[in-house]
Amino acid sequence: MKVITDKANPEFWLLSDPHLIADSLHDFGPRFEQMQATSAGKDITYQETALRAFVKKVVEEKPDAVVITGDLTFNGAKASAKKFAELFAPLKKAGVALIAIPGNHDIFDGWARRFEADQEYRVDQLSPRDWREIFSATYDLAESLDPNSLSFAVNLNPHWRLICLDSNIYGHQESYGHPITSGNLTDSERAWLTQELETGQKANQEMLFFMHHNLYDHNSVVHDGFRLNNAAELLALLKKYPVRCAFSGHIHAQHIMAKNVAIPEIVSSCFAETDQGYGIVKLGNNQLDYLRKTFDIDRYLTEQEKKAYPFNDFHSYLVKVFDGANDQLMEHFLTFDGTAEGQEAISLLKKLHWNFFTGQGNLTPAESATLKKSATYQKLLQMGPNLRWYLNSLTESQESSQELMLTW
Fold first, then answer.
1. pLDDT digits (tens, 9 = 90+) for 129-144
2. Rounded Cα gap, residues 247 and 212, in angstroms
3. What superkingdom does the record give (predicted)?
């Protein structure tokens, strides 16, 4: 049996959706600036530096593994995947396993481009073969490989099996279209997965499940394309076995569903936006402890890197980028009347968005009722009457999405 560690109580870190575009693929010119301005609140300009800094923290603290649940690249450029693997190469020497799972933007993405001046140019896309070769550090650890997809399974230690599903939909050759948002479990993957679950159960292993797409709807309004197309079928299979928790990404929002579900699911926020969240998972005897953390990036930046930024604080910059996406949303859906009350309503919407995407939007029923009765919330509804159901969805969660302890 291949194992990553023999530790009885292993620890791994979670990262999702870093959306790296290699610095070699852009020149900070007007076309790339336009891409940054329309990037839906995430930073794509400084991710190479941000990930290099994160690797320093990983090497310093030495978890047993780092698991990345998809969208390692911004637009599926082969050069970006190569740069990602290069940035994370120090993990091997430090004794930390890299477990890289593809997302819907990674394989045969027709949007793969480099940006120069006011133009963009097609570049080599990532094929499944490219992915396995570039992230060979992951696949070399695998106890089992699905021959028909990029799915695989690894043994974190003799007691814990990590099953990693390629949930993405892509063709067999380079694409000229946009990446497909939705995901699916194919018949061949189901057969492989069933065999893996059986193998894990016979070996008396506890199992954890990972994919890019979600097992559940984590927002009552915005969920199309995020939950796996045949999630109900997948869940029916998983719950027959000792699968203790599922992990995913894709929606860019931090969210946990652990109550009234067959299998708890932890969705990690996008590392390239808001507060650079990542997760720490500690495993013990019949126990799993999860904690979300904010990456303290400034501690790991060199003085030269800090001087290269047109800002003083990286997280303040990320807030500004996120606010820019909010402003674009409000231009489309809100009618601002220029009043102080209207400005307060806009500030409330920005706060609700920040809390939702960072996993801090959970309210008690009483807190939710008080918020919705407030004059500021009512003003927000007046300014954007078509947003009523969407606004409700931002505060519907009552569970904490910052931490979770499971026992069985």
1. 999 999 999 999 999 9
2. 8
3. Bacteria
